[in-house]
Amino acid sequence: MSYVGDSGKINATYRPIGAVETLVRPTVTNAFVATGSVTNGQFGLFQYNMAPRAGGPEAHFHKTFSESFYIVEGTVRLFDGEHWVDTSAGDFLYVPEGGIHAFRNESDAPASMLILFAPAPPRENYFRELAELIDSKRQLTAEERAEFLAKHDQYMV
């Protein structure tokens, strides 16, 4: 039990859409709806919108947080470590710490999903720094790439 009071507290956090940082890339828009700084580190919630044929990351895992995917719109291919499955609105995938997973949009239509990270790593930093690397056109060595990914608790398989 993390709250032991008897009367409850007034401590909710409201974030209107204008307060949500959104990282806009050529094929992906990532809205950082609730970062760990907003949720006291309990979880992070992002809305991840993909253009048609946006692709996605290769199979990977995280050591310190779980990741959940809830499909809002379109067809998203999710990998559960064994199988790829075409998902649609309302489908859900939970990946515990250490679970191999990947996602992508290979369809000819846009797709959108919510991604929940728990507990909340500063995952927004990964997406910001990745965008900066891509924009700089800098090519990382294999060692630099592994170091960058490890810094953000991402391990490719």
Protein architecture, described:
A hairpin with a 3-residue loop joins strand 1 (22-24) and strand 2. The protein starts with 21 loop residues before the first strand and ends with a strand. The protein is α+β, with helices and mostly antiparallel strands. The strands form three sheets. It has a six-stranded antiparallel sheet with strand order 1-2-3-10-5-8, covered by helices on one side. The mean pLDDT is 97. It has one domain (25-156): Jelly Rolls, CATH 2.60.120. The protein has two helices and eleven strands, in the order E-E-E-E-E-E-E-E-E-E-H-H-E. The protein is globular and about 55 Å long.
Topology of helices and strands:
Elements: E1 22-24, E2 28-34, E3 44-50, E4 60-61, E5 66-73, E6 76-79, E7 84-87, E8 92-95, E9 102-104, E10 111-118, H1 123-136, H2 142-151, E11 155-156
Antiparallel strand pairs: 1-2, 2-3, 3-10, 4-11, 5-8, 5-10, 6-7, 6-9
Structure, briefly:
The chain has 157 residues and is α+β, with helices and mostly antiparallel strands. It has two helices and eleven strands.
Lateral arrangement of strands in the main beta sheet: 1-2-3-10-5-8
Question: Per CATH, what is the topology?
Answer: Jelly Rolls
The number of helical elements comes to 2
User: What is the terminal separation in angstroms?
Assistant: 37 Å
Shape: globular
* Second CATH tier, the architecture: Sandwich
Order of helices and strands: EEEEEEEEEEHHE
Strand tally is: 11
> Which sheet architecture does the biggest sheet show?
6 strands, antiparallel
Rg from alpha-carbon coordinates? 17 Å
Structural class, please?
A: alpha+beta
Residue windows where pLDDT falls under 50 for at least 5 positions: none
| CATH superfamily annotation | Jelly Rolls
CATH class: Mainly Beta
- Roughly what fraction of the amino acids lie in strands? 25-35%
Helicity range: 10-25%
Mean pLDDT over the residues: 97
**Tally of discrete structural domains:** 1
